[in-house]
Amino acid sequence: MATGDLSNNATKVRRQLQAIQYPHDVNDAAKQLARGTPVSHLRELLRVLHYALLDYSRHVAQRVQAADLDLYGRTDAKFVDGVFRFAREQLGYFPSLTSAQFLSATQFRERKLIIVAEMLEQIAKIHVEGLRQQRIKQSVWVPSDKAPAGRLSRPVQSPIEMVDHRAKVPAPPTWQSVNLGQTKPSRVVRHVASPPAYHVSPLVPAPQTEPEPEAPIFDWETPIDGAVYKNVDKAVLKPPPPTPFWVEAHVQREQQQPRTYEEDDTVDELYPRELPIQPSVEHPIQPTRAPTPPEPAMHATLAKLEATLCSKLDDILALVADKFAQLDDRLARLEAKVDKPGASLSPNQEPETPKVFNAPRTTTASSSVYRWPPEPAAFRKVV
């Protein structure tokens, strides 16, 4: 099988997996073999070979056992060596890759697909041949003179002959009841559609009768079966007690005669009630506030505050100006010390000797010389 078409070879492997009834998803298996990750590719490759040689067919497993190959509990390299040996000796197929190349995770993927497809095809042929040999062994040979006659072929009848045959067929026999011993005709059930029913409405409408009033569903006298209910307080349904005569007389008298103020006072004493207390409209209650000072006093207070604020601001400006003056003096002193010759030298540093041109060289190098221990002036704070 030629290389150069990875998708076509993956499709062939998928078809062979379907032929051997691979228990897992054949589409995913072909995809992992063709373009899966290195780990999934090797795992699917070894799983396909294990199923094809050991789990697919009893006839193939017998051939593996007859070849004295122990493929269980082996490492990947030993397992692939045993598979290739079985292919060479039992299938007559010689793989084009070695065991190490076959176990490569990233290389020779298309050749692996070709090898797997061809090996699965040979394994399927072994399975079919084993089934045929098994059927031959299980078959029983019978002499021709003792062979049973085959089923006689029924002649083909035309539609007219079939109708005549049905007409000549006798009626079905009657059946006899076992219990009564009486002969009864056979029961035939015919499903015939019922004829349509026609209703003619009269010309004069019929008088409509009034519906009878329904009896009340619940009554106090109706016994209730089932669960035990609490006793209902029937006093609620009784009419209220009659109004006392003195109340009715009082109401009638009020309706007939106008009331006076003296009677109102008497009634208030007999029937006390809440006092109608309402807020006074003439003098409304104002919320509590601080007393507002008169305008002249307010102007005087504002003028005093303004004067105090101005004096505070003047003091602050004076302090700021003083600070700036001190800073200017300090900067002037520092500039004077920086510009002064010899100010850059440390008090502990000796002056360098002047250089003489074209003089014989007596020293190897010239550098600043410091005295030790240093003078106390070296630790003096520069102000």
TrEMBL record:
It is found in: Cytoplasm, Cytoskeleton, Microtubule organizing center, Centrosome, Centriole; Cytoplasm, Cytoskeleton, Spindle pole; Midbody. Residues 340-369 are annotated as: Disordered. Residues 360-369 have a biased composition (Polar residues). GO terms for cellular component: centriole; midbody; spindle pole. Keywords: Coiled coil, Cytoplasm, Cytoskeleton. It comes from the Eukaryota. Coiled coil: none annotated. Residues 5-135 form the Centrosomal CEP44 domain. Its main location: cytoplasm. PANTHER family: CENTROSOMAL PROTEIN OF 44 KDA. Centriole-enriched microtubule-binding protein involved in centriole biogenesis. In collaboration with CEP295 and POC1B, is required for the centriole-to-centrosome conversion by ensuring the formation of bona fide centriole wall. Functions as a linker component that maintains centrosome cohesion. Associates with CROCC and regulates its stability and localization to the centrosome. This is Centrosomal protein of 44 kDa. It comes from Saprolegnia diclina (strain VS20).
